[in-house]
Amino acid sequence: MTNSNCSESVRALLSEIVDYAGLFPPSQLSMPDAVNNYANYKNSNYNWMLGRFVVSMARLDEFSDNARNFLTNSKFSVWKLSVLASDDISETIRQIEDFNAANAPFAVCDSIEAKAVTTRMIEEITEFVQANFVVYFELPLNENLAGLVSAVAKRGQRAKIRTGGITENAFPKNEKIIHFMKTCLAANIPFKATAGLHHPLRCRKPLTYDKDAPTGTMNGFLNVFLAAGFLRQGFQESLISELLEDERAENFTFNAGGVLWRQEYFISTAQLKILRDKSIISFGSCSFEEPIADLKEIGIL
After folding, report:
1. Which of 78, 113, 83, 107 is nearest to 95 (CA)?
2. Closest CA to 118 of 148, 158, 142
């Protein structure tokens, strides 16, 4: 994998790509550690890759207590948060509005993540959401997906796919990932991914940070994001599945104009920008350092 003269295409693909979820498994850090990490990342050379800080509604007050000194420090830009909703969406919205009123302009919650398994749940949740919030609905990858995506689209919201976890059976099969992305692209709704995407390329790695952690096959975020890009161009599912399974760094070439896969299939920098703006927005990861270290190792950064 080469990266000469590639800053524009690399930045187009990786800008604000990681929503930091250090509070969640497998890292599951304390609030002080997660907040301190995020502050360090915002002040690092790779802050352009950093997206939102992910926190549950129940821990917003704890976040405020631990982040107060950072939030008022002028060297930091605004902290944007994505909040995992509780079962009580009205209480979630109230807590978020209180948080925003207390912490503006230094921090703002403008993104909500909620699970929905029925169209009625989507309708009920969006009834409470004001125009200044965007909701990512985590949807089950089953036979109801098309109807659920349609309901999300009608409400002008976004979708979310869980791409892994701390057990091997938490990782969906390629065909389910492809079906989710194709369905979202057809409905013209943006989406994000979460879990199991610490590494840029598909690989077999320990599933947690425990000493005796089981190993499993993990999806790569470059594979997933570029697969979404090629799906936008209308490529066949069989080829997209091969891309999702590609573990070979040398098959991906970044240059000034875009990304070339297998020396044959190309996505331009302009197409990457549209992809990230209109389709696949970000992925949640409990590690920000691991993706960067891997990208360095394979020559992207």
Report:
1. 83
2. 148
CA angle centred on 285, ends 47 and 207, rounded to 5°: 140
- Interatomic CA distance for residues 70 and 79, integer angstroms: 9
Rg over alpha carbons for the chain, rounded to the nearest Å, is: 19
Residue extents of the structural domains in the chain = 16-204+281-295
Distance of alpha carbon 147 from alpha carbon 119, whole angstroms: 7
Instruction: Return d(Cα 260, Cα 238) in angstroms, integer.
Output: 18
Assigned CATH topology for domain 16-204+281-295:
TIM Barrel (3.20.20)
Q: pLDDT truncated to tens, each residue of the chain (301 aa)?
A: 444 444 799 999 999 999 999 999 999 999 999 999 999 999 999 999 999 999 999 999 999 999 998 988 767 789 999 999 999 999 999 999 999 999 988 999 999 999 999 999 999 999 988 778 899 999 999 999 999 999 999 999 999 999 998 888 899 999 999 999 999 999 999 999 999 898 999 988 888 888 888 888 999 999 999 999 999 999 999 999 999 999 999 999 998 899 999 999 999 999 999 999 999 999 999 999 999 999 999 999 9
Residues β-bridged to residue 267: 259
State the Cα–Cα distance between residues 116 and 139, nearest whole angstrom: 6
CA separation for the pair 129, 92 (Å, rounded): 10
